[in-house]
Specification:
heterodimer; A: alpha+beta; Alpha-Beta Plaits; Trigger factor, domain 2; 3 domains; four-stranded antiparallel beta sheet; 9 strands; B: alpha+beta; 39% strand; elongated
Chain lengths: 476, 100
């Protein structure tokens, strides 16, 4: 076998491979056996038909084609091993010469991982930023808690005002005719929230329970229902119920209710601890994000378009899943936003390129720092996935497959690399307070990205704070 | 009765068995239903320019075949045909599949 490897643009390698005629001959025999086994030829048991019969049934060049294909596959694999090339994708192969009795020559263009020249990634001059937990934040959480534990008390002694919870019945007519969706028997509203037609609720202010009011109202020009937009309708409204929201007083009783807290001070202390812990966790996440950005910005690499294309497909998939969770079909979404698939892809592309870059750079750092992931860690993740996706057979099968394990392994490896950088910085700056993770379910690598983005956007994650509260009653 | 050589020899029979026997100088043909050994010998010698040392013949008779379909029963017959296995003089060959 004669192999010449020439580096080509876009981080590809052009392999030119020449094989002696004997290799083709052996391959012909193999091809005949294979084809015979899967072709039915009348008069022959499967696998027993001679070559000329196969060619009669399958066409003149079928056996040769099969033989060349087999040969190229084998030779291509050998060439990769011989040259020490790790391909990223399937190679595109061009057969130059494939004639019996002559050497077989073919060219293969192989996509290889681009060369990543790392810049500095460890000596950055920024530090984690920990949000201060001040009393104002705690007050906010406390008032959220009070809000969630509010009770509704019927209002009888005063007219309706903004913020009241009302139940109304109304009939809307246009030119004396009721119109679709313009009437309701019992409609709960919060006065002042303006969920209805603008101006509607204003007419209800000052009414009392049992009052009936009638008024004309013009729909805004940009109203969702086009047949109504800009038209005037007549509404007859009856106020059926009126309640006001009573926040529970901030006292020790509330604190006891919220969980096992002795008094308000205890509750506030618990909230402060929660907030501080999640601030540290967020600080760690944004710190690692900054390190990644720093490393990527300093690295030199040309991203091969094919990788970006793949990533765009991945993002498209994720997007599909996201809108599917909200119960929107992709076709419907595209129609509603007047976008085509191509538009979406253009939109994804810059992000995809970033993601590919990040991936490549972190992998390179992992190589440089010698980050490894042992099998036990991968198995632990698989087990975690098994628990998390119990009942979702397809996902579990994926994680248990070789591909899934590889995915877990590489994700873990990247996570560890970044964690390693963070820890190294913390070790070097012992004066800086430690940045522990929130102790949530072992910090799974599979969800690390989601967790990361959650941490990035979730200013206050109320759930984390309120976990310590009893399930709050719904104030409706 | 006079059949031409092409009328006597209809086509070679190509199967695992016939291919094996061809390796031993025995060639199998589908022949005219009325052809006898003498006619077959003459026809093969004429067509392939070889010497025939022996001819074995057999006739596969038609059989009735019935099967039920959605539209009712269908009945018919398998095609009757006559097969001849021709032994050539030692060392002689016929290049198969060239017309006939």
């Amino acid at each position: 076998m004669n192999v010449t490897a020439t580096p080509s643009p876009n981080s590809t390698i052009l392999l030119e491979i020449e094989l002696p005629p004997e290799r083709l001959e052996r391959s012909m025999d193999e091809a005949t056996r294979r084809l015979a086994r899967r072709t039915r030829v009348a008069g022959f048991r499967p696998g027993k038909a001679p070559r000329f019969m196969l060619e009669r049934v399958l066409g003149q060049s079928a056996v040769l084609d099969e033989a060349v294909e087999l040969l190229i596959q084998a030779a291509y694999r050998d060439a990769l091993v011989e040259q020490g090339i790790v391909p990223l994708t399937e190679a595109s192969v061009e057969v130059v010469q494939a004639v019996e009795g002559q050497p077989v020559i073919f060219k293969a263009t192989v996509q290889v991982p681009p060369e990543v020249i790392l810049g500095d990634y460890a000596n950055f001059n920024f530090a984690p930023e920990i949000e201060a937990t001040d009393d104002a934040r705690i007050d906010q959480v406390v008032s959220e808690l009070r809000d969630q534990n509010a009770t509704l008390r019927p209002v009888e002694d005063r007219p309706a005002q903004n913020g009241d919870y009302a139940v109304i019945g109304f009939v809307g007519t246009r030119d004396g005719q009721p119109f679709e969706g313009g009437s309701s028997d019992r409609m709960p509203i919060v006065l002042g929230e303006e969920r209805l037609i603008p101006g509607f609720e204003a007419h209800l202010l000052g009414t009392r329970v049992g009052d009936q009011v009638e008024f004309d109202l013009t729909f805004p020009d940009d109203y969702g229902e086009t047949s109504l937009a800009g038209h005037t309708a007549h509404f007859a409204v009856e106020v059926k119920e009126l309640r006001e929201k009573i926040l529970p007083p901030l006292d020790d009783e509330l604190a006891t209710q919220m969980g096992d807290f002795k008094d308000v001070a205890g509750l506030r202390l618990a909230i402060r601890e929660r907030l501080e812990r999640s601030a540290l966790d967020r600080a760690r996440h944004s710190f690692s994000d900054r390190i990644i950005q720093y490393a990527v910005a300093n690295a030199t690499l040309a991203v091969p378009p094919i990788l970006v294309d793949q990533e765009v497909e991945v993002m498209h998939d994720e997007f599909r899943a996201t809108i599917a969770r909200q119960g929107i079909g992709e076709a419907a979404y595209l129609k509603a936003t007047e976008q085509t698939e191509a538009d979406l892809h253009t939109e994804f592309r810059p992000r995809a390129e970033d993601r590919v870059k990040t991936l490549l750079v972190i992998s390179r750092i992992a190589d440089t720092d010698g980050v490894t992931v042992d099998d036990a860690a991968v198995e632990a993740e698989v087990a975690a996935a098994r628990r998390r996706y119990a009942g979702d057979g397809k996902t579990i099968t994926y994680f248990e497959s070789e591909r899934g394990r590889n995915f877990i392994r590489s994700t873990l490896r990247r996570t560890r690399t970044v964690e390693g950088l963070v820890d190294a910085w913390l070790a070097a700056h012992s004066e800086h307070p430690a940045l522990p993770h929130l102790e949530d379910d072992g910090k799974s690598a599979i969800e690390a990205e989601t967790a990361g983005s959650n941490a990035a956007i979730g200013a206050t994650d109320p759930a984390t704070v309120l976990d310590l509260a009893e399930p709050a009653g719904n104030p409706a | 009765m006079s059949l031409t050589a092409h009328e006597v020899i209809l086509r070679p029979v190509i199967s695992e068995k016939s291919m094996d026997e061809a390796g031993h100088g025995k060639y199998t043909f589908a022949v005219h239903g009325d052809a006898n050994k003498i006619m077959i010998k003459g026809a093969v010698e004429e067509l392939f320019k070889v010497n025939v040392t022996g001819v074995n013949v057999l006739t596969t008779k038609a059989k009735e075949k019935r099967r039920g379909t959605k539209r009712g029963r269908i009945s018919g017959f398998t095609t009757p045909w006559r097969k001849a296995i021709v032994t050539l003089a030692a060392g002689q060959k016929i290049e198969f599949f060239e017309g006939v």
